[in-house]
Write a structure and sequence with these properties.
The protein contains nine helices and nine strands. The chain is an alpha/beta fold and 225 residues long. The chain binds S-adenosyl-L-homocysteine. Specifically methylates guanosine-37 in various tRNAs.
């Protein structure tokens, strides 16, 4: 799968996508991420990409032309399944959306900055708008990194034990059961006996029960959905 991310601050994306599971998936060739600096199509000697808003509101807006040119350049090379704009007023991102996007071949993620982007891009080019929650960040880069991470860790081979992604929270509509590792006792705090029993059936039953109990207690809304 290939993800193209368009940004005015590409440096913000380097570290989150360069290490751990996502970094390794890219090195292994399971996913490709290409980050494009919007300033490539900026205007004038300062490569300007933003301007004042019509109507006189405070805050700068990313201009329509550089975004259009950048996306046209990418579309001339290949077909995109989705052109996603990260936006606080988009659909709230969740595991279902991550699963769905992980099946796509090529996607573009467009990061806004400052006060946002010229609305004509959203009206005419963007196919989907995604929010990472009801709060406002300075730019779409951290949200884009979150979306890319959630997608890439689902791709076959990204996680060595493939069942591991499947047992994560939300994957089956439930929160995950608690997890423990060695030592079995620390400071008098014990790992639940059942996990030391070596009986896979009992362990599975305990995990299912814990997942259900935690979901009921912490996120009852998930059970209604
Ligand atoms: N004026 C805009 C917010 C601009 S914040 C508004 O009120 O809706 C600048 C950029 O950060 C946005 O263009 C968007 O790309 C990104 N951003 C901020 N918060 C976000 C969120 N919760 N989810 C996704 N992207 C977000």
């Amino acid at each position: 799968m290939r993800i193209d991310i368009i940004s005015v601050v590409p440096e913000l994306l380097e570290s989150p996508l360069g290490h751990s599971i996502v970094g390794r998936a890219i090195k292994k060739g399971i996913a490709e991420i290409h980050v494009h600096n919007l300033r490539k199509y900026g205007k004038g000697p300062r490569q300007q990409v933003d301007d004042y808003s019509y109507g006189g509101d405070a805050g700068m807006i990313l201009m329509v032309e550089p975004v259009y040119m950048m996306i046209e350049e990418l579309k001339a090379e290949r077909q995109y399944d989705e052109i996603i704009y990260m936006s606080p007023d988009g659909e709230i991102f969740n595991q279902g959306t991550a699963n769905e996007l992980s099946l796509k071949e090529n996607i573009i993620i467009l990061c806004g900055h400052y006060k946002g982007i010229d609305h004509r891009i959203r009206e005419h080019i963007v196919t989907r708008e995604i929010s990472v929650g009801d709060y406002v960040l300075s730019g779409g880069e951290i949200p884009a990194a979150m979306v890319a991470d959630a997608i890439i860790r689902l791709l076959p081979g990204a996680i060595s034990d493939e069942t591991s992604a499947l047992s994560d929270s939300f994957q089956d509509g439930l929160l995950s059961a608690p997890v423990y590792t060695r030592p079995a006792e620390f400071n008098g705090w014990k790992v639940p006996d059942v996990l030391l029993s070596g009986n896979p059936k009992l362990i599975r039953a305990w995990q299912d029960e814990q997942a259900l109990e935690r979901t009921r207690r912490l996120r009852p809304g998930l059970l209604e959905d």
